[in-house]
Design goal:
Layout (H helix, E strand, L loop, with lengths): L1 H19 L9 H19 L12 H24 L3 H15 L2 H4 L1 H7 L8
Length: 124
């Protein structure tokens, strides 16, 4: 499910770049260049890994494609973050909101959690 959601987010971001800005133009920052080199290395490793170097059976193709997808999707998310984030404060706010959206209602109640640990509410 996370793979599909991540692929959807990357696709929506690319479509937004194509429709709104009429071109896929990435920032020329060091993070973008490094991420693109990382993605190229992942694809190159996948292609070279298809050659039978050793006389043993390799991993199933579905497992290899899943590993490649993991690298490509994580690089795509990093490109989105690098392209859409304007400042460190903006990034911290988004990370905090993402963490809070994944937390359960019990984890959101800080005073209750601290009380369970034995910390008085006034000390917090």
């Amino acid at each position: 499910m996370c793979f599909l959601l991540t692929a959807f987010l990357i696709g929506a971001w690319l479509l937004r770049l194509l429709i709104v800005r009429r071109a896929v133009q990435l920032d020329a920052s060091s993070i973008t260049v490094t991420t693109l080199i990382f993605l190229a290395g992942a694809v190159l490793s996948f292609v070279v890994g298809q050659y039978p170097w050793f006389p043993t059976d390799g991993a199933p193709m579905r497992a290899q494609l899943g590993g490649l997808a993991l690298f490509l999707l994580s690089g795509g998310v990093l490109l989105i973050i690098a392209h859409e984030t304007t400042s460190l404060r903006h990034l911290a706010q988004r990370a905090l909101l993402a963490g809070l959206s994944l937390a359960s209602p019990e984890q959101r109640d800080a005073k209750r959690g601290l009380a369970e640990l034995g910390v008085p509410a006034r000390a917090a």
